[in-house]
Each structure stands twice: as structure tokens, then as C-alpha cells.
Amino acid sequence: MRNHTILTEFVLLGISDNPELQVVIFIFLFLAYVLSVAGNLTIIILTLTDCHLKTLMYYFLQNFSFLEITFTNVSIPRFLGAIITKIKTISYNNCLGQLFFFIFMDVSEFFLLTPMPLHHTTIMNKKICPLLAFSSWLGGFLTIFPPLMLILQLDFCASNIVDHFFCDYFPILQVSCSDTGLLEMIGFYFAFVTLLFTLALVILSYLCIISTILRIPLATQRKKAFSTCSSHMIVISISCGILAILNTSIDPMLNPFIYTLRNEQVKQAFKNVFHKVIFSRNK
User: Fold this and answer.
1) Distances from the Cα of 50 to the Cαs of 57, 196, 224, 241, 283, in angstroms?
2) Tens-level pLDDT at each residue, the chain (283 residues)
3) Residue 270, class by beta-carbon neighbours within 10 Å (0-12 exposed, 13-18 middle, 19+ buried)?
4) Membrane-spanning regions, if any (predicted)?
5) Euclidean distance between CA atoms 276 and 283, whole angstroms
6) What are the two backbone dihedrals, phi and then psi, of residue 8, each rounded to the nearest 5 degrees?
7) Superfamily covering domain 3-282
8) Domain ranges of the chain
């Protein structure tokens, strides 16, 4: 009988055993989690209810916000619960489920960021947008599904202690007593190709967009176009350049504010919804 069938749970060590530091971590992550879910949920509601946000750009933003909410819920709530209850164990099935959805959502976000700058009507249309969104989700699924099938064949006979706060790809491989050379190579290759592919497409997209913007005669329109593009570039820079703990909390929290605070249409839609709520209560 193979040892991976006997293993029933993993132990996630977390970030720190220091009680005072755990309090700080809990407060920080809890606030980031609440703001992330509330901000992204607000964007979804606004894009569904406001007629001025029924454009191609906000279709992608709606998908992106849904991915952010799901991505955040994969790891943060369980980690917050572990800090409170002091229970660090996670079942084998739940651990692999967390690994699957974490990478699935994370890679799908990367792929979805690629077509988001191409929201101009001359480049996009209502038929292409759903296809590109579906392709992003499919790309995320195909990135993690083959390696996950191989991970299910691993033996965990030496230890079940994972030096991380959630079930991530490489920390899981480190506790296996099987030969993980192929899986490590696949993980590195997929991560490298995904990053290189998405960044190359984004750079190519922006070269085309900047060329188009520079041909716009009015300076105010050029400024508005550059402002929209800069929001997207900030999100990409954050997604590519932060650590795992920040990627699961800070990135999803900042994205709604980056897109809304720099976008007059979203701010106006929020004001309209707020006024409707206040007006209905005063009736």
C-alpha cells in the first residue's frame, strides 16, 4: 500500500508562533480581507447595476473582481481561523483542494490581465470578450490540473509538516519522500512561461495602445486614456512583484481602489447607488 493513501492531514506551521506577532498579523489580514471582499464585491455590483458601466472594459473588471474574491477566500479565512483556534492541521483532501484553487485563480488572474488594456471597440467586441475571459479561466485550469494529477501520486512518508501558512506548490513538494524533480521542473517552467507570456502580450498591447493614444488630437482625451492605462499597469506591477502573504491579501485589497479612485465613471456610479440607497431609506 502506498503511503500517500495513509496520510490524512498536513500541519501548516504558519508565519510565526509569537503570540504578540500573531495578533498583529490577524488584525492586518482581517482588515485586508474585509476591504478586499467589500471592494471587489462593490465593483461587481456597480458593473451589474449601472448602465454606464456596461462596457467591454468593465466586463473584464467584473471577472477580475470575482477572481480576486475567490482567490482571497482560498487561504485567508482558514489562516485567520487557525490563529484563533490554534489548530494548524488541514486534511489531505482540503490541502490539495486549496492548492488547486489557489493556483487556478492566481494564474487565471494573470491571463485575464493580458486582454484588459484592449478594451477599445476597434479591437474588442461582445463576442471576443467572453471568449478571452473563458480562455483565461481555461489557461488557469490547464496550468494546475496536470501537476495536481502527479502530486496525487506522491508519497508522504517522512513528514506532514508544511513550512507555510497555506498549501502552496513547492512547500508541498518539499515534504514528499518521492522524487519530485519532474514536478519541480514543471512548476518552474509553468511559472516562467506564464509570467513571460503574459508580460510579453501586455507590453505588445501597450505599444499598440500608446501608438493609438499619441494620435488622439485632444490633450484631455490623451490624458484620460493614459490614466486608464496607468491603473492597469499598477495592478500588473503589484501582481508580479509582491510576496505570497501580500499577494493573498494586499493585492486583492488594493485593486478595487486602484481602479475606482482613478476612474470617474466608477466613482459616479458609486455615488448614484449611494444616493439611491439613501433616498429609498428616507421614503
Assistant:
1) 14, 36, 21, 33, 22
2) 344 446 788 999 888 888 889 999 899 889 989 988 988 898 888 888 877 777 777 788 888 889 989 988 998 999 999 999 999 999 999 999 999 999 999 888 888 877 766 555 445 667 778 888 898 899 999 999 999 999 998 888 767 899 888 898 999 998 888 888 999 999 998 888 887 887 787 777 777 777 776 777 766 666 666 665 665 566 665 555 554 555 666 667 666 666 665 566 676 776 776 667 666 665 5
3) middle
4) 23-49, 56-76, 96-116, 128-152, 188-214, 226-246
5) 11
6) -115, -20
7) Rhodopsin 7-helix transmembrane proteins (1.20.1070.10)
8) 3-282
Q: Where are the beta strands (DSSP E) in 99-201?
A: 161-162
Beta bridge partners of 275: none
